[in-house]
Amino acid sequence: MPKIYTRTGDDGTTALIGGTRVGKDSPCIKAFGTVDELNGLIGLATAQGAAAELRPILREIQRDLFELGADLAVDPAAPTNTPSSRIQPRHIERLEKSIDELTLALTPLTHFILPGGSTTASVFHLARAVCRRAERRVVALQRASSPDIQEKYLPFIQYLNRLSDLLFIMARFQNHKDNVAEIRWP
After folding, report:
1. Considering the entire predicted model, what is its pTM?
2. Tell me, what CATH number does 104's domain have?
């Protein structure tokens, strides 16, 4: 295997898929970096003891996020890289199905709850907040893009929006499984 370091990023730039070098603070890098951070938190929730019912869903989500990150890393201006999305409506529908199924095990939500509960549920709450940040970063990337490719980002935004809802439900489900009461606000 080649060495993990290349030194090509020592000047504060990195390459997109397609070869274009951009600053590590560019909207694109911020977007897929936040998706990567989210993926790490989902891995932490899994390692921290996510309920057995959640584990297969989490693995699918991690795969989706890896593909979403790859989609975000494609240079849309490169002539050989036609923007396309690996995230399809079926991925969003799968998230919605999981939300609906997990919600059946929970008491109806009649008030706001504070993030927290068990350690694993707390990681889900943190992942939800990072997911919302990822969504905002993709929206910023979309708005900074040329009008002809802005539509490319819609499935990513929809996926992240639905995923944040699912992560909230997973936090509630985890607390339910851990027999930890939710903290009501106010």
Report:
1. 0.94
2. 1.20.1200.10
